[in-house]
């Protein structure tokens, strides 16, 4: 300001006006906006409490039922914990192993499913369903020889198991043994003429072999049987088939 006032071309009154303007309006420098400070507590994400098993003491049935209800809400880990607890209390509880096997299977965790189903075979060696479940798990795990071995054990116990023959056919198909797969599917269809799946599988194999006419016939029969199945289910439920 001293330099401004010393200029000869300006009188003292003009210097005073300029000085007053600088005081009122400032030097043109913009002030930085204030930054809002967010409290540290506001930035924290609220953590959901970890769900734990209820304290049911030695009630194996209670833990089993808790697992059954829990899995309905998609709480896989908690359900597995419940069934493991039930088995810890009662190592002979086959249904707990079955539910564990099914849960692991639906999650694509075949090693867990196989381990659980092996226990059901150990506990109920005369039940063909245990071998079928284990065989299916082996097939999905691409252990086809092991799958066929378990499924044949099921057939030894129940020669009229259409499902076991159908599953053997699927394992054989994966092993590219198409003719043997066809024989297995035909056995399944002969045992249970109302079972749709073998006809669909036969249609697939026939297509692979270039037998389009035979494939079409099997696919048509499959669709017909599926329609009948849906109609029966709708009748039971009191609705109409879709």
UniProtKB/TrEMBL annotation:
Transmembrane segments: none annotated. InterPro entries: TPR-like_helical_dom_sf (IPR011990), TPR_rpt (IPR019734), Ycf3 (IPR050498). Coiled coil: none annotated. TPR repeats lie at residues 60-93, 94-127, 128-161, 162-195. The keyword Repeat applies. It holds the Pfam family TPR_11. Keywords: Repeat, TPR repeat. This is Uncharacterized protein. It comes from Candidatus Scalindua rubra. The lineage of its organism: Bacteria, Pseudomonadati, Planctomycetota, Candidatus Brocadiia, Candidatus Brocadiales.
């Amino acid at each position: 300001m001293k330099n401004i006032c010393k200029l000869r071309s300006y009188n003292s009154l003009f210097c005073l006006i300029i000085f007053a303007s600088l005081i009122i309006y400032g030097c043109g420098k913009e002030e930085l906006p204030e930054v809002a400070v967010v409290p540290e507590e506001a930035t924290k994400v609220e953590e959901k409490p970890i769900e734990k098993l209820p304290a049911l003491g030695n009630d194996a049935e209670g833990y089993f039922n808790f697992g059954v209800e829990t899995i309905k809400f998609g709480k896989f880990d908690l359900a597995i914990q419940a069934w493991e607890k039930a088995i810890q209390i009662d190592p002979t509880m086959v249904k707990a192993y079955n539910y564990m096997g099914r849960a692991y299977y639906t999650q694509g965790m075949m090693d867990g499913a196989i381990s659980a189903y092996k226990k059901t075979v150990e506990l109920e060696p005369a039940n063909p369903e245990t071998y079928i479940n284990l065989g299916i798990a082996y097939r999905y795990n691409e252990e086809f020889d092991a799958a066929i071995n378990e499924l044949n054990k099921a057939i030894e116990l129940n020669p009229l198991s259409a499902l076991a023959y159908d599953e053997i056919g699927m394992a054989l198909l994966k092993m590219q043994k198409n003719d043997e797969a066809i024989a297995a599917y035909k056995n399944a269809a002969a045992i249970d003429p109302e079972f749709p799946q073998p006809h669909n599988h036969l249609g697939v194999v026939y297509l692979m072999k270039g037998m389009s006419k035979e494939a079409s016939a099997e696919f048509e029969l499959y669709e017909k049987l599926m329609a009948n199945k849906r109609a029966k289910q709708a009748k039971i439920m009191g609705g109409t088939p879709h």
